[in-house]
Amino acid sequence: MLAVAAPLLAGCDESNSAIVQAQPVEPDVSIVTVKPQPRSVVRELPGRIAPTRVAEVRPRVSGIVVERLFRQGSEVKAGDPLYRIDPHPFEVEVMASEAAVAKAQAVLLQAQQHSRRIATLTSQRAAPEAENEKAIAAEHQAKAEVEGRKAELSRAKLHLDYATVRAPIDGVVGAALVSEGALAVQNETNLATVQQLDPIYADFTQSVTEVNQLRRAFENGDLDRIEADAAKVRLVLDDNALYSQSGKLLFSDAKVEANTGQVTLRGEFPNPNRELLPGMYVRVRIEQGIDSDAIAVPQQAVQRNGGGGSEVFVVKDDNRVAVQPVRTGSVQDGVWFVTEGLKAGDKVVVEGFQKFAAGDKVKPQSWAEADAAGEVRRAQLVQ
Fold this sequence. Notes:
Elements: H1 2-22, E1 28-33, E2 37-57, E3 63-68, E4 75-76, E5 81-85, H2 88-123, H3 129-162, E6 164-166, E7 171-173, E8 183-184, E9 192-207, H4 208-220, E10 233-236, E11 248-256, E12 262-269, E13 281-294, E14 296-298, E15 303-304, E16 310-315, E17 321-332, E18 335-340, E19 347-351, E20 363-366, H5 367-382
Parallel strand pairs: 1-20
Antiparallel strand pairs: 1-19, 2-9, 2-13, 3-5, 3-8, 4-7, 5-6, 7-9, 9-12, 10-13, 11-12, 14-18, 15-16, 16-17, 16-19, 17-18
Helix pairs in contact: 2-3
């Protein structure tokens, strides 16, 4: 009996071990629990950098350029001299005008003396009244002549001053477009261009469809408006770096471009270090509203099914995984906005998709706790 019992006991142990081995191991998965919270609705739109002001430097008198007074690409202030046109013709014009003023003043002096003499003779009835009136008129005419000559002198001095071509605005002066010896024609020749780069504009566009959707969301109460002084506008440069200075939204164009269906917007940004240059391509991030109860999940939690739709894996109360179709909105800062399909308290799988299939039982753990555990393990390996 004892010899028979031993094999039987051994057989029972083997069957128990096989049952234990056959029991499935519940895989660990990382989850996030859905929690609605206020989030800013941010749009990323394409744009170009444009100067705040642009002024072409044109001469206000004609003449030969004799000197360039600026370094190309340098900062200039309004009124700084940039070119000098040959001043000698204008100096001669000033001298001639001064001589004309002196002559007119001499004629006026003579007319005044004659007028006083005639007035005395008229009062003594030694000269007719008509002569007195003629003398008074001559004096007034001489005064007018003096004023006219003075105006010509002022014009001549103004032309002499215009012989020095000055910067019309503060900014950065570009390339010199003429050299010494060139003829500058009044109001026609473009000598250089000055651009104001601080602050600077970013012009960007948004489709009229998005603008209308945003307007309807405000009207329906789905989004809350951001106050004008609280709205932030940020720039993403062509190397994906975020520009350090935030800007402000200036306006939204009141018309739609017929060919593209786009509305133009403009932002203003500080540019103290001249990092932004006219013509640069940028992407503009603009806060356009606040979703007071937004549902967002990490970007990797959203999967695509065979039909091209979006879905997530949700852990139910019995720790079994189910597929949940969702409708997504925009993606920003690594998270998807989910507009339909999820509610507060849902447990969405973020990591561990390769360990299970829909309907399997899993062992969920918080995604944040999983990250913390991973950091601890990495620190232990380093030590």
